[in-house]
Amino acid sequence: MNALEQLSKMTVIVADTGDIQSIKQFQPRDATTNPSLLLAAARQPEYKDLVQKAIDTSGVTDRSSPAGLKAILENLSVVFATEILKIVSGRVSVEVDASLSFDTQATIGYAKRLITRFEEQNISRERILIKIASTWEGIEAAKVLEKEGIHCNLTLLFNLGQAIACAEGGIKLISPFVGRIYDFYKAKQGVESFAPEEDPGVLSVQEIYNYYKKFGYETEVMGASFRTSGEIIELAGCDLLTIGPKFLEEMKNSDTVVEEKLSLEKALARDGEKIVMDESTFRWMLNEDEMATAKLSEGIRRFNADWLKLADYLQEEFL
């Protein structure tokens, strides 16, 4: 078996792309999207019809107004996800507007509108994960949504405190960002790279996975945002891994031996004490983690910037 086939025997593979052709090629169980991926997909000529469909089915009459444009962007996420759901057998993650990352009630409202759009097309909410930034406010919103059967994927997650708050809140899935942690420490330490087994991003996901399994949390861990295929291989055994087309292709063409690195048995054998989580503990753990504080803030800004770029693109090319 090639490396991708070996990995798929111990970890669920998720396609980290909005490119429908790539998803058809690699046939993952799940897929995940974000504003950056949607922007890249929307700019491709082969998806112009889908973008136009999103505009035409948005229900918006005043397409030039800020409210109208926001509604079109919401519907664009739904239209692309709906096409992806025709290919994958599992779930698709759809992102909430990053500008709402510190507004619990607005996040809840946005998520419910997305779910309504899917259910109007007879798509079960069980096949959708609502992606929300791992702020305290975002986690509080996800807790409410989970109680209503709307499952969430907490993204832009960089440290154990965020992960514990999600698990305590009964969140379905988290996406710790391996590559962005790697980027931070690479720049801070002035090094060219890290060996995969010493990669700070890999170590962070391993810590979270082992903590969850040791203390019996059901929240799924999905490693995300990779810089090298070595990072992916070091997380073999993780619940899920969301991988971009570049590394899916690289692993498909590789005969590297993939060994299980993470497992319930290994996690249970580890030492460690349970951390009692509340808002003040969450904020203190985030405050004391320079990397997590910087990357969470940066990530929200970047996703918001890509939403704005996508809005500008729609106005220039379609509206």
Structure characterization notes:
There is one protein chain. The chain is globular and about 60 Å long. The protein is built from 15 helices and eight strands. The model has no long low-confidence stretch (mean pLDDT 96). The longest helix has 28 residues, at 290-317. The protein has helices at 3-8, 20-26, 35-42, 48-56, 66-85, 104-119, 136-147, 160-168, 178-189, 200-214, 229-234, 245-252, 264-268, 279-287, 290-317; strands spanning 12-16, 30-32, 92-95, 128-133, 152-157, 173-176, 220-223, 240-243. It has a single domain (3-317), classed as TIM Barrel (Alpha-Beta Barrel). An eight-stranded parallel β-barrel has the order 1-2-3-4-5-6-7-8, surrounded by eight helices.
Keywords:
15 helices; 8-stranded parallel barrel; TIM Barrel; alpha/beta; 319 residues; single chain
In short:
The protein contains 15 helices and 8 strands. It has 319 residues and is an alpha/beta fold.
Helix content: 40-55%
Task: Tell the overall outline.
Answer: globular
- Which strand order does the major sheet show? 1-2-3-4-5-6-7-8
Question: Which residue ranges are poorly predicted, with pLDDT under 50 across at least 5 consecutive positions?
Answer: none
Number of helices: 15
Biggest sheet statistics: 8 strands, parallel, barrel
CATH fold description: TIM Barrel
Strand content: 5-15%
Structural class: alpha/beta
Mean pLDDT across residues? 96
CATH level-four homologous superfamily name: Aldolase class I
Distance between the termini: 48 Å
> How many E strands?
8
- CATH architecture classification name: Alpha-Beta Barrel
The helix/strand order is HEHEHHHEHEHEHEHHEHEHHHH
